[in-house]
Automatic annotation (TrEMBL):
<feature type="transmembrane region" description="Helical">
    <location>
        <begin position="155"/>
        <end position="174"/>
    </location>
</feature>
<feature type="region of interest" description="Disordered">
    <location>
        <begin position="376"/>
        <end position="404"/>
    </location>
</feature>
<keyword id="KW-0472">Membrane</keyword>
<keyword id="KW-1133">Transmembrane helix</keyword>
<keyword id="KW-0812">Transmembrane</keyword>
<protein>
    <submittedName>
        <fullName>Uncharacterized protein</fullName>
    </submittedName>
</protein>
<dbReference type="InterPro" id="IPR029058">
    <property type="entry name" value="AB_hydrolase_fold"/>
</dbReference>
<feature type="transmembrane region" description="Helical">
    <location>
        <begin position="122"/>
        <end position="149"/>
    </location>
</feature>
Length: 404
């Protein structure tokens, strides 16, 4: 039966969604196609119907949803910023390695890397993989140059051999471009030790203008979704929206952070604004903030309350509500086997279909007729202070079973 064709006894629930992805260098069309493909798969597995149509531009799309005895009209708009990341289009080995080592040095020199390691070791080890890979490639390039030099030196003339080897190594190190490796966006976020770069601050201003326009629209819910590193930017955008003042008639405000990496930014010494934003949102009664992560995702800080671990939990903290995606339960064994050894796909799973859907389902959240505030009652978090940068709130040691 076509659920979308059923008669509508009342007007559909209207929602505006702003999706802030991480800094991965993918075109906006990637997320639209991902939503279409995975939404179709989820509709086949659950009692729902989704229909997509073009939005206002290449970075937006509209969704009509029928599920849970109701209807919803959603407009999704992507807020991309990956083009600002150094080497977003790929880099040669040597400049890429220099950039990664520079970023790593900032985290080491400020003591941030050790605090992050204490919080979640597997996430820090994942950060170290790209520099290790680039170092290996650099060693291979130098080794190839050395082999060529020795071969030509023995066959022709030693100076010519060494010159040829040097040229080969130089070409491999400086001219051959490789696709960006994970965590390239840390170079942008850590460049000023946690303060936003001028280019990113300007982009955030444009994002704020888009949210302010939606705040005065006729929608029922304004939902900001931050995935991966984009979760930290989503927090700052929502905090700015609240600071700017809210109109009397407005949609319900909701923030959804998925696979968040907020501590990568909030633990840095100059990330004072981000910590202020976390502190403000944690006690804001005007919104609902749900944080979804999974222990099976090695590229995020799973089930860690980003407010408390950053040392800025206010008295009477309300948010975030921590939810486990529980991939061991929501994905079939066959699906989990396909994701084994592919951490990037596991990190993207929050935006994909689940073949054993649980409480969290991105398509019900974004295209369903119920606001976020009605979906997740309970609370659970890991809120051990780890950043060393706290400004409010006393250290607490608490580890609760995540609410599902």
């Amino acid at each position: 039966m076509d659920l979308l064709a059923e008669p509508k006894l009342r007007r559909p629930f209207r929602r505006r969604v702003f999706l802030i992805p991480g800094g991965e260098p993918v075109p906006p069309a990637f997320y639209r196609e991902l939503y279409l493909r995975q939404g179709t798969a989820q509709a086949d597995l659950a009692e729902m119907a989704l229909a997509l149509r073009p939005g206002r531009g290449p970075a937006s799309w509209r969704v009509a949803g029928a599920m849970e005895a109701g209807f919803c009209d959603t407009e999704v708009e992507l807020l991309p910023w990956a083009d600002l990341v150094p080497g977003a289009a790929g880099q040669a080995i040597l400049p890429a390695l220099a950039g990664r080592l520079g970023t790593l040095w900032i985290y080491l020199a400020t003591g941030t890397l050790l605090r992050l390691f204490r919080l979640r070791p597997v996430a820090v080890l994942a950060i170290l993989v790209p520099p290790a890979v680039l170092s290996g490639l650099a060693a291979l390039a130098l080794g190839a140059g050395l082999l060529l030099a020795q071969a030509l030196a023995a066959l022709i003339w030693p100076p010519a051999g060494w010159l040829a080897g040097l040229l080969l190594a130089g070409v491999l190190l400086l001219r051959v471009r490789f696709p960006p490796l994970p965590f390239a966006d840390l170079g942008l976020l850590a460049r000023q030790r946690g303060a936003l770069s001028p280019a990113l601050a300007e982009r955030m201003g444009r994002f704020r203008a888009a949210l302010s326009e939606a705040l005065r629209s006729e929608c029922d819910e304004l939902l900001v979704v931050g995935h991966s590193t984009g979760a930290a930017l989503a927090v700052s955008l929502m905090a700015d929206l609240l600071r700017g003042g809210l109109p009397g008639r407005r949609p319900a405000l909701a923030l959804l952070t998925l696979g968040q990496r907020v501590p990568l930014l909030s633990f840095l010494p100059e990330a004072r604004q981000v910590r202020r934003d976390l502190n403000a949102l944690a006690a804001a009664a005007e919104l609902t903030w749900v944080d979804v992560s999974a222990r099976e995702d090695p590229l995020c800080f799973a089930l860690c309350d980003p407010v408390s671990v950053s040392g800025v939990a206010p008295e009477g903290q309300l948010w975030p509500l921590a939810i486990s995606a529980a991939l061991a339960e929501t994905l079939s064994p066959a699906r989990r086997r396909r994701l084994r050894g592919r951490p990037g796909l596991r990190h993207l799973q929050y935006l994909c279909a689940y073949d054993r859907p649980g409480d969290y389902d991105v398509f019900r959240v974004t295209a369903g007729p119920r606001p976020l505030a009605e979906r997740f009652p309970g609370r659970g978090r890991i809120d051990r202070v780890s950043s060393g940068q706290g400004t409010t709130g006393a250290p607490r040691a608490e580890a609760q079973r995540p609410v599902r």
